[in-house]
Amino acid sequence: MFNRPSSGRSTPLPLSSTRVTDPGRHYHRHDARIVPIHRRIASNLVKNPLLAFLLFVLLILSFAWLGGLTQEDERIRLGGGLRVVARDWREGTGGGGLMKGRGKLSGGHKHDQVVLVLTPMKNSIEHIWHYFHLLDTLTYPRHLLHLGVLVSDSTDRTYLRALELADERQFTRRYKGNHYGRIAIFNKDFVPSSGGSADNATAVPGDVGDNIGPARHEFKRQIERRKVLAKSRTWLLNSALVPEVDWVLWIDVDVVEYDADLIQQLLKRGGESGADVVVPNCMWKTYNEMGSYDRNNWAETPESIALKRTLSDEDILIEGYSDDLPTFRLNMASHYPANSTTPETMDLDGVGGCTTMVRADLHRQGAVFPAWPVDHQIETEGFAQIAKKLGGKLVGLPKYYVYHGLYG
Q1: Is residue 134 within 8 Å of residue 255, measured between CB atoms?
Q2: Whole-angstrom Cα distance, residue 185 to residue 98?
Q3: Are 386 and 367 spatial neighbours (Cβ–Cβ below 8 Å)?
Q4: Reported confidence tier of residue 74, pLDDT bands at 50, 70, 90
Q5: Which positions ≥6 away from 258 have C-beta within 8 Å?
């Protein structure tokens, strides 16, 4: 039995000094709902219209910068401002100095020659990344380098990939402050499709799409193949050559190695010999072997001159196929391997296109790549005949090598 107080009433509990108006919020917190963060942000934006407007504008500008609201082709291809280019080629004016403002841009600098690198391509998707990578390794001032690529008669993504690689170098942060002076990418077919014609080119059965491996070097395909290539080179030259250019460097897309100072070396050696066309010795190389590749760099001999006297005007000579068509010429490739008697330079009467530096003014005078025989030669060797008729000097470098893919 419990003892009750004498009053018969229970003693009341002391009151808290803090008044609780809603005990439920202390003892039932698990019933409270957590507002998601996106709703809280939305609520704040509704309460602050100015902040919402500024955030909207920022999103629009960011999206436009990434290219989402603009047409990429128009924004990139048509970028840049209008300008006036002036160049004075008259005698006594410093050899065609490029004018900038009131003074000449060229002259007085260690490297002031604008070099245009030109390459015709066909089904070159397996080579094109390395091609651009090698150009990036060149130590010649990037702003003085122009690039021109013509893709033709291709069945792969060479053209689209060329555009991607060009845009990467001109419009991405990776190359910021180190862009090329100019890059031009063209696409044009020269071999007619079945039942049609393209620029009066003669169709070569099986040639379109077959640009890999040794098959394209078969003797029976050379004349028609090189006629098409001659048109491609001349079209590319006329499309890409702008007044600023001093030299044109032709490089095959499947060249696999050259020195980082290739351009400086060719300009230096060409200047020392007074050359208008400078050609290194183009070789092929594997990890343990090396041999001659481009056999279109040659000099006439008494025997080869005598052979030409027996030919009709339309006959075409193709170099490098002695078993099918001996020409009796002295080939620069025969100087490999070099020895103590190998000359540093040799005068040439024919050149190839593996890697060839040409003074731009020689091209401007009319030295193009004929698809018709000029002194029994077409394409690069035909160009050499025109260059000589215009007074150009062609010089080969037997001991200075660049390297071509073995089956390119």
Answers
A1: yes
A2: 24
A3: yes
A4: very low
A5: 134, 280, 355, 402, 403
307 alpha-carbon distance from chain centroid: 40
Q: Give the model confidence (pLDDT) of 319-374 as tens digits.
A: 877 667 889 999 999 999 888 899 999 999 999 999 999 999 999 999 999 999 99
Tell me which residue of 280, 131, 289, 153 sits closest to 216, measured CA to CA. Answer: 153
Model pLDDT for residues 51-60, shown as the tens digit of each residue: 777 878 888 8
For residue 224, which amino acid is it? E
Distance of alpha carbon 257 from the chain centroid: 15
Distance CA 7, CA 26 (A): 36
Cβ atoms of 356 and 367 within 8 Å: the answer is no
* DSSP labels, 124-147: -TTTHHHHHHHHHH--S-GGGEEE
Q: Provide φ and ψ at 64, rounded to 5°.
A: -65, -40
Q: Which regions of 253-388 does DSSP assign to beta strands (E)?
A: 255-257, 277-285, 290-292, 298-299, 330-331, 346-347, 355-359
Q: Using an 8 Å Cβ cutoff, are 367 and 233 in contact?
A: no
What is the distance of C-alpha 88 from the center of its chain?
A: 29
Residue 208 has pLDDT above 70, yes or no: no
Token pair belonging to 122: 């066909």
Q: Do the beta carbons of residue 348 and residue 279 sit within 8 Å?
A: yes
- Measured in whole angstroms, how far is the alpha carbon of residue 65 from the centre of its chain? 25
Closest CA to 113 of 396, 358, 390: 358
The answer to whether the CB of 150 falls within 8 A of the CB of 186 is: yes
Query: Is the sign of the CA dihedral 25, 26, 28, 29 positive or negative?
Result: positive
Q: Rounded CA gap, 222 and 228, in Å?
A: 10
Output the pTM of the full model. Answer: 0.77
If one counts every other C-beta atom within 10 angstroms of the C-beta of residue 187, the result is: 15
